[in-house]
Write a structure and sequence with these properties.
CATH architecture of one domain: 2-Layer Sandwich
Bound molecules: zinc ion
Strand content: 15-25%
CATH superfamily of one domain: Folate-binding superfamily
CATH class of one domain: Alpha Beta
Number of strands: 6
Distance between the termini: 75 Å
Strand order of the largest sheet: 3-4-5-6
Order of helices and strands: HHEEEHEEE
CATH topology of one domain: Folate-binding fold
Radius of gyration: 23 Å
Oligomer: single chain
Largest sheet: 4 strands, antiparallel
């Protein structure tokens, strides 16, 4: 005879969770969550949880650019799959903004640098 607590759970849930993998597989998935480190130019390597992602590096439109160019700049992102340059903020550290070259598919091969040390993007 099963314990009363187990009986109540199975009776109430029925097969509503039958689409989920067994509990031991759920634990396995949790261990495979993706994390990585970023190299703050000021503080060195830290867990990505210390940082806030802003966006990819984009070219700022000219002050007299039309409304659609400014809308693209402010609201739309390329969301590339692969290498891209991004703005990051060390929110739990030195409170600095910097750029990271990161491959978004695997979070590897990235380097971090200050904006002033970067090649300035073309204004085309
Ligand atoms: Zn820092």
């Amino acid at each position: 005879m099963m314990p009363l607590s187990q009986y109540n759970v199975e009776q109430k849930m029925g097969n509503s969770f039958s689409h989920l993998p067994p509990l031991d597989l759920c634990v396995l998935y949790q261990k495979k969550t993706m994390s990585f480190q970023l190299n703050c130019p000021n503080c060195g390597k830290r867990a990505v949880s210390e940082f806030t992602f802003k966006s990819e590096l984009k070219t700022r439109p000219a002050a007299d650019a039309d409304f659609s160019e400014w809308t693209d700049y402010v609201y739309f992102r390329e969301n590339n799959m692969g290498p891209q340059t991004e703005w990051w903020f060390h929110s739990s550290g030195c409170q600095s903004w910097f750029l990271v070259e990161r491959d978004t598919t695997n979070n590897t091969d990235h380097r971090s640098f200050w904006y002033n040390d970067s090649e300035q993007p073309d204004n085309n």
